[in-house]
Amino acid sequence: MSEAKITVTGACKRFHETVALDQVTVRFEAGRIHGIIGRNGSGKTVLFKCICGFMSLDEGRITIDNRPVRTSAPQDIGILIERPGFIGSYSGWKNLWLLAQLRKRASRQDVAEAIRQVGLDVTNRKAVAKYSQGMRQRLGLAQAIMEKPPLMILDEPMNGLDKQGVADVRALLRDLNQAGTTILLSSHYAEDIDALCDTVHEMDGGRIRPWPG
């Protein structure tokens, strides 16, 4: 059995009377692409936020590389969760460069390379507020990859993409994985899961189980 990148043990999360995570226990091995499929409200996004440290668990434990996850700014994780938030009056390049300067983990060259990798034009100075949904999603993915993280957490990365965009992103994720990146992604669509993932789990009502396919 390969080394675990992410280990979730007995994870529980409640919001008043709603159980978002119900004793979730799962292990994601390093160097693979792992998929989680499930309907809206199944618990996928809450699980991802807890793995990233954006939410704390009520019960249970999550580790990355055998280190407990803390509710603080995540390190060495590329993240795309829900709709990416950018400054609408700035260009895509300026948004990413401002973020890069905050953490000082990506150079100008890294930012430019990430923008090209997702199929956007580095020289385009159009304000992000004028981007299509698909362009904004591509920019969010560029943000997730620009620091070359060893782990990526991607919640519905194909949202808003046309057929060519989906094909481009699938190819990019395969390339990143072949270079050693561990990827955990969610999708509503079985096609994305079938095309990309080495392992697949299904979430429903806050519970997780291996997906029968």
What does this structure look like?
The chain is an alpha/beta fold and 213 residues long. It has a domain at 1-72 and 182-213: Rossmann fold (3-Layer(aba) Sandwich). 31% of the residues lie in helices and 29% in strands. The protein has helices at 44-52, 92-103, 108-117, 133-145, 163-178, 190-196; strands at 4-15, 18-29, 33-37, 59-64, 67-68, 77-80, 151-155, 182-187, 199-204, 207-210. The strands form 2 sheets. A 6-stranded mixed β-sheet has the order 6-7-8-3-9-10, sandwiched between helices. Strands 2-1-4-5 form a 4-stranded antiparallel β-sheet, with helices on one face. Strand 7, helix 5 and strand 8 (182-187) form a beta-alpha-beta unit. The radius of gyration is 17 Å and the shape is globular. The model has no long low-confidence stretch (mean pLDDT 93).
